[in-house]
Each structure stands twice: as structure tokens, then as C-alpha cells.
Amino acid sequence: MATLSDVARRAGVSPATASRVINGSSKPVTDELRERVLQAVAELQYVPNAHAQLLARSHRGPVGVIVHDVSDPYFSEITRGLQRVATDQGRLLMICNSYRDPDRELEYVELLRGHQVAAIILAGSGYHDAEFIRLLNGKLAAYEATGGRVAVIGRHEHSGDAVMPDNRRGAWLLGQEMCRLGHERIGVVAGPRVLTTTTDRLTGLREALAEHGRRLPADRVRYAEFDRDSGAAATAALLDAEPGLTAIAALNDSMAIGALSLLRSRAVSVPEQVSVFGFDDMPLARDVTPTLTTIRLPLVEMGARAMALALDAGDGSPRVESLAAELVRRDSSGPPPG
User: Fold this and answer.
1) Of 28, 129, 228, 241, which residue is most buried, by most CB within 10 angstroms?
2) What is the Cα 284 distance to its own chain's centre?
3) What is the pLDDT of residue 158?
């Protein structure tokens, strides 16, 4: 069995430096040395002393949560679920906003390791970025090797406990509803291209349209940030390029609310002239005018289930919990004009 000295020798560093990297010390270590140590840990399959790690990581220690932006209603609802279970278990949450910056997410993993949190939960979407995935998995593996636990929400390239909202099926339901109503000229306000959530929702929507013999040309898709103003700007771009669109599918509710605002500013009636569809079913979706037709995800439950997984070691094998999506019909959708 490999020892700390073996890891240090393989990495070409002192045992003290190897220990700082493995144990998540707050003392600074250069990225180059950290990568060498983590590579040596992986190559030698080094397992730290579990008893020492458990002494350092209190059973009542805090839980670190990395979200994209807690002010986003999507993450606010997920955080409610996380907080509910954490409070019941007497745990403190450390919430980190990455603002969809992969480098910041990597920095937060190191920061949380340094604080010796009991678990880390990645609550935001995964990324289509091979180098980021490699670095993230290396850091999470080093953290898990010291007794830490990891759970993710959404599709990530990480083997472990996960809560999976059915984004693809939800978008398929959305596409089926638009076809049932008779829409053919459909514009899509998608999220950031780099996120797996965006890919999954676009895939499901395209599959539903294809079943009805309808295509979604690339020029009818606008990628935008998951916020109101970006949704309004993307909707404007779609309508300027093709004024005859009869439906706008925004792949989250914040962007859909931006679409409603833009249409109102142009005196376009919803749904008489253009139908608007959202995704997620934020609480605000019931309060806007017209009320928003959308896809409901159980956001609070997603957070609660992820926290429960993070705090329960189970038998050590990866657990994946899938949560279904459902269509919620409201006033913003109807058949196309004429």
C-alpha cells in the first residue's frame, strides 16, 4: 500500500507539500505542484489514513454548495431544499456563487477542501469543456480520497451520487405541446451553449418536433444567458430575423419573462399573436401576465434529495435519482393566429 512518502517521491515534492495538497490545507501550493501530487495520488492509488481524516472532518461539519448564481430563482428554489435538509441535520451551508465561471468553480473546490467541509454539492449544470472536466474530477477525487463526499445536480461528467432532473423529457413535452397547438414557426431562446442543461433541453425539443415532421433550423435558435434581459434580447433578435414566428420557447422561465416583456413593448399580444413557453416553473411564472405555460421541475425536492445523498454515505456505490418533469398549461400559450 502506497504511503505519503511514496506520493511525495513520485511527485518530486516534500512530504509536507504532498500532505498540504492531499489534506486541502489553506497554505498556498502552486498549480504545477498540486497537479503533480494529484497525478501521483492517482497513479499510486494512494488512500489517506481514514481515521485521521474523520477526526479532522467533524461529523457536524459544514457542507459546501457551489451554485451558478443564488439570486437566480432556479438556484434560490434548489437552495431552499438544500437548506431544509441541512437545518434538520444541524449543518451549516457554505454557498459559493460561480457565476458560470469554470475557473471560479475550481477555486471554490480548493477553498472548500481547505475548510474541510463534510461534503461538496455541485448544484449547477455541467460544462462541455474537456479540460475543465479533467481538472474538476482530479480535485474532487483528491477531496473524496480524504473522506469528503460529493453530490451533483444535473448532468456532470463525474462518477458519483447525482440528482438528475429530466431536462430532455421536459423539453420533449414542451415540443409536443407546441405541435399539438399547431405551431410550426417556432423560435427558441436557449441558454449558454457550453452548458449540458442547454444541450439536453434542445435535444428533447428537437426530438419532439422531428416526431411531427418539423425541423428547428439553426437560425431559429438564439443562445443567451439564463436571465431576463438576455431572454428579451434573444427574442428581439429572433423576431427581427423572422417576424412571422408564432411561438417562442425559452429554455428557462427567467428568459421567458424577458420574452414576454419584449413582446409587450412591441405591442404583440400573447398568446393571440405569439405564444410563449418557459421551463422550470419558478414561483413567478404564476404571477406574470399572462401566466406562463412552462415545464415544472421539482426544484426544492432536487435540492433536498442532493443534500440527503451528500450526508448519507450509503454503501459507497454511485446513486442516481431521476426526477420527472411535467407540463403546466397556463395563459401564455394557444394556437397560432389564423
Assistant:
1) 228
2) 20
3) 82
**pLDDT confidence of residue 30:** 87
The residue assigned the cell 463525474 is: 158
Task: Provide the pLDDT for residue 61.
Answer: 83
**From CA 283, how far away is CA 299, in angstroms rounded?**
11
* 217 neighbors 209 (Cβ within 8 angstroms): no
The model's pTM is 0.83
| pLDDT tens readout for residues 324-334 | 999 999 999 99
DSSP summary character for residue 278: -
Strands 186-190 and 161-165: unpaired
Q: pLDDT tens, 123-145?
A: 989 999 999 999 999 999 888 88
Helix axes 73-88 and 299-311, enclosed angle (nearest 10) = 40
Q: What are the helix (H) ranges across the chain?
A: 4-11, 15-22, 31-44, 50-56, 73-88, 102-114, 130-145, 167-181, 196-211, 228-241, 253-265, 299-311
For residue 273, count CB atoms less than 10 angstroms from its CB and return exposed for 0-12, middle for 13-18, buried for 19 or more: middle
User: How is the beta sheet containing 186-190 ordered, strand by strand?
Assistant: 221-223, 186-190, 247-250, 275-277
Q: 75: Cβ–Cβ under 8 A, 6 or more apart, which residues?
A: 67, 68, 69, 123, 124
| 317 to 159, 161, 259: CA distances (angstroms) | 10, 8, 43
Q: Is the peptide bond before 290 cis (omega within 30 degrees of 0)?
A: yes
Bridging pattern class, strands 320-323 and 161-165: parallel
Q: Return d(Cα 292, Cα 279) in angstroms, integer.
A: 9
Task: Give the chain's domains with CATH numbers.
Answer: 4-56 (1.10.260.40), 63-165+300-324 (3.40.50.2300), 167-297+327-333 (3.40.50.2300)
- Percentage of the residues of the chain whose pLDDT score is greater than 90: 74
- Classify the C-alpha dihedral 112-113-119-121 as positive or negative: positive
Joined together, the cell numbers standing for residue 107 give 477555486
